[in-house]
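For reproducibility, we list the full input for the adenosine monophosphate complex.
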Amino acid sequence: MPSFQEARRIILESVSPLGAEIVPALEAVGRVLAEDVRAPFDLPRWDNSAMDGFALRAQDADRPGGLRVSGYVPAGTTPAGAVAEGTAVRVLTGAPIPPGADAVVPVEHTEEQGGTVRPLRPIGAGQNVRRRGEDIRAGEVVLAAGTVLGPAELSALASCSRLAVPVVRRARVAILSTGDELVEPGAPLAPGLIHDSNAWALAAAVRQAGGVPAALGIARDDREALRRLLREGLAADALVTSAGVSVGDRDLVREVLEELGVRQLFWKIDIKPGRPTAFALAGRTPVFSLPGNPVATLLTFDQLVRPALLRAMGHERVLRPLVPAALRDGLRRKPGRVEFVRVRLERSAGALVATSAGDQATGMLGTLLRADGIVVVPADRGTIEPGGAVEVQVLRGELERWDA
Ligand code: AMP
Ligand code: MG
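The corresponding predicted structure, in tokenized form, follows.
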């Protein structure tokens, strides 16, 4: 039985990167750039004013009697002529600097009267001038392959007039629920039946990871149904099933996968909850068989499947950040398994305090609904005393939310 870390390493080493596709820049948000983007020209494209003010020769600034205002360059226009000795040209922010000028005096540092401007403070050459190419040089790599595209990157693409970019493909993830007790949400419940909640939960998790969920529906606990739907799922970039991987006599998922020629890399991991998780490869297609209890399904997805999908989709950072916290009430436990504890988080005197979000039984979805984070307890750790130091993955809100 692999440890949690070994299991994750096996999974990450097994995933193959997906190919690239060219998409419109705005549709590339959140995705990973597949090739370098170089600047087609200098940015800024010409020397321009950083202020509303007067472009002049810095050495003329303290001329007695001031400088004659000889022109006006609003943004979006070009200078009609040069700035000659003893003159200044009114400019707006972003306007090209007229030839001859080497500085801009901000309007609030001037006195203007009858066509003459007098700078009130000394000014040095280059002041308030944004130089051509000072931000990004023509030919320079503006965005390197591997960059996750966000607002700043979109700003760069627009500045470079790049309408479309090559990005790593989204993973298509087939999702299969298994179990005789399951009916679709919305369907009436006969005694003994429950609604399939894992399919929706997994679809949401896949989408949040940037993948495209493809629902296969529900397979009964019978070989024929499983065979047909599992085979269909193997055509996707990854297949995620829930339930039917324990030791019950109706737990047929692994058996049928094996009949389909899928190579199992492990079954059962030293984690709590989520122990009966299995991982297999069908050719190069990863197959994740997750346990059926909804909390275990989501936790094992988050800890094991999400990193794999992110890696396949080109992400460098695939694991959630761990933030130090104090576990308020501690935790009685024996060493042996990595344990995931659903907690609420709050700041107390600048430190993060984690408090159990409720009953940690794997059937208790309500505890997950109340949780802000997951404390990850290392396998070799025994009982944690009240206030003991732990590491937590923050689920809700940006990390900054806690940086009060
Ligand atoms: P199993 O691994 O098949 O024994 O399932 C473990 C538990 O998870 C049982 O209580 C199942 O009813 C429940 N379960 C399995 N699949 C789902 C599902 N898709 N939605 C909600 N609960 C499920
Ligand atoms: Mg079952």
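The mean pLDDT is 96. The longest strand covers residues 338-348. Both points were considered when choosing residues for closer inspection.
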